[in-house]
């Protein structure tokens, strides 16, 4: 490549950029096809109660199987979708699919707890977001009290005033709000109270090394205590081993997600886990305000 041909670093980087640009265009095009041809689906990662080990809900995560490229990870295509504006349609597709799934489980009498759906920064700024969301709720018949919207801490900071309005509107529709990847942005603590969120997800970058990194352990402990102190449901992400879980339990963390319990799985697999849990006599209590 450029460097070996003795050219400067600039060209070396611009070739990288060109390649990246090409890959982005390919992803953008393929993503449009994917949306039109059923290549997308939602998987569900169980969210587990730290105190008793039972599933209390799940996070819906987008999965894309490309006919030639195979599995394309969200990290690769969500950013492209955001940059090209495709995220608007994609986000609506995800929300509708989650509502349909929720309705199916409700009809089948499955106790699924609450389902959270990720919204990215640009989705929040979509002008007709609230109209479209309420239309989908009506059309699918999904009960909004079983839905939670995850918004990353960083995306809340773009336009705090507008974010506040959107969050209030989503809450008026009956949904819960969680702050995702908490600890990676720089939100002032007063925002937390102003935004009237319900849950807070400790970013997995702190959980990953908390057993070996005293800084990460201190941050995790502080975030859990802060969240619980202002009455939020605190969830730890990326829990991969029992020692991490023990630490979180000791800190008073409410719930966790991670490979220790399960990665995101197809809807039928998640439903199987719930049925098994129900057969053990476990009933999920409704989140506050839920009609059940
Ligand atoms: P996120 O919302 O923070 O989701 C958590 C990510 O951590 C997921 O990656 C999940 O599979 C992964 N994860 C869960 N447990 C573990 C663990 O124990 N160890 C490790 N190393 N990872 C774990 P995934 O599914 O690849 O999604 C990545 C990101 O893409 C998500 O981060 C979210 O920001 C975005 N994303 C995924 N689906 C959607 C969607 O439907 N809409 C939007 N807007 N964004 C989405
Ligand atoms: Mg999330
Ligand atoms: Mg996260
Ligand atoms: Mg993340």
TrEMBL record:
This is EAL domain-containing protein. Residues 24-278 form the EAL domain.
